[in-house]
Structures are given as structure tokens and as C-alpha cells.
């Protein structure tokens, strides 16, 4: 019985997180209350306060429960392209865009990150969230330096500048796609989006 109760509590907690993500993405974090989340989840306000003592703790728990998309994609692709870091980088970018554009949860999380949250106080910062789940400078630096050592990109490549260019490019693409997805079929055009970035990088190297 105790095990069943614990599992039920975990299921309830996850349900509240799922509902919160949808409401935060749709209505904004600042305007969504714990009471709103409880009502949408079909629960009492006491139930949500049993799991989360504040909206900040719920907001942070949302990110604590998410898996790192970039690591999952890299592990998946590494076994397929073990010796070509430049091609691996291309495939990582393409697969990431495809997942973002086809997974509703990723869409909602990115809406929160880019459009519906005013980060403040003890909330995880935008930078912390972005680097933990989608774009980590340290991981990107290792891949680029490996590409340089293997002659895939020029020796004089400025790694820090290249990472800034990559981040700015994808942030702009994703942010605008979230606002007007009808203007870009991100799933189908992911290879074109990535290949255009690589042309920019080659010219700037």
C-alpha cells in the first residue's frame, strides 16, 4: 500500500508539472498562479501546495525533471558517425531542430524560455536552462576543437567567436519560428537551415 501511495504521489506531481508547462507556455509564468494550475489539473489548491510550496519551486522542478536533449541526440548519433566530428556536428544540429519542431513538450519548454517568462529571484536563469538542456558552450567547444585537430575546419578558427555565432543563429531561428511557425517548416528545412549556417562559418573562419 505504501509503495502504491508513493507511486500515486509521483504521478500526481508529474501531472502538475505537465499542466504547469502547458499553462506557462500559453499564458505566461508571471500571470499563471498555483491556483490556476491546480484548477486545470483537476485538483485542490491544498494538493498542489503539498507538492510545491511556491511557484518558483514548481518552475525550477520543471527543469530538474527534463532530460538534456543535446546529450541524448549526441549519444544517438555518435555510434552512427564515429570518426567525423564535423559531420557529427551537422547531424546534431539537424536532429535537434527536428526534435524541437516535432515534439510538443520541447515546443512548450522553448516558448517558456524565449517568450513567456520574466526570469527573476530564485528561478533558474535563462542561461542556466539553455546551457543545461539545449546549448552548452563547453560541449560545443570540445567538438569544434576536435574538428580543428582533425583538419575539418581551419586551424585559425576562433572557437569562442564561432560558438557565439552558432548560438545567435539558432536562437534567432528558433525564437522567430516559435512566433510564426507557419513561415518555416523547421522539420523539413532543418538540413537547409544548418547548411546555411555552415556556409556562414566557413566564410568567417
TrEMBL record:
Source domain of life: Bacteria
Single Gene Ontology BP annotation: response to xenobiotic stimulus
Keyword rRNA processing carried by entry: no
DNA-binding positions: 33-52
Pfam family, one: TetR_C_2
Domain HTH tetR-type residue range list: 10-70
Keywords: DNA-binding, Repressor, Transcription, Transcription regulation
Family annotation (InterPro entries): Homeodomain-like_sf, HTH-type_Tx_Regulator, HTH_TetR, Tet_transcr_reg_TetR-rel_C_sf, Tscrpt_reg_MAATS_C
Keyword ATP-binding recorded: no
GO molecular function: DNA binding; DNA-binding transcription factor activity
Designated name of the protein: TetR family transcriptional repressor
Amino acid at each position: 500500500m505504501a509503495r502504491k501511495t508513493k507511486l500515486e504521489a509521483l504521478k500526481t506531481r508529474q501531472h502538475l508539472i505537465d499542466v504547469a508547462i502547458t499553462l506557462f507556455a500559453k499564458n505566461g509564468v508571471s500571470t499563471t498562479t498555483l491556483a490556476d494550475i491546480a484548477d486545470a489539473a483537476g485538483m485542490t489548491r491544498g494538493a498542489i501546495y503539498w507538492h510545491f510550496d511556491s511557484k518558483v519551486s514548481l518552475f525550477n522542478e520543471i527543469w530538474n525533471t527534463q532530460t538534456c536533449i543535446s546529450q541524448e541526440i549526441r549519444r544517438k548519433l555518435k555510434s552512427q558517425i564515429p570518426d567525423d566530428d564535423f559531420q557529427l556536428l551537422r547531424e546534431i544540429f539537424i536532429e535537434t531542430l527536428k526534435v524541437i519542431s516535432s515534439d510538443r513538450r520541447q515546443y512548450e519548454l522553448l516558448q517558456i524560455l524565449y517568450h513567456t517568462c520574466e526570469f527573476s529571484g530564485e528561478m533558474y536563469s535563462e542561461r542556466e536552462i539553455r546551457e543545461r538542456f539545449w546549448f552548452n558552450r563547453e560541449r560545443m567547444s570540445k567538438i569544434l576543437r576536435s574538428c580543428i585537430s582533425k583538419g575539418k575546419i581551419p586551424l585559425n578558427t576562433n572557437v569562442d567567436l564561432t560558438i557565439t555565432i552558432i548560438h545567435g543563429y539558432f536562437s534567432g531561428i528558433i525564437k522567430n519560428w516559435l512566433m510564426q511557425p507557419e513561415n518555416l517548416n523547421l522539420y523539413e528545412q532543418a538540413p537547409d537551415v544548418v547548411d546555411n549556417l555552415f556556409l556562414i562559418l566557413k566564410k568567417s573562419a
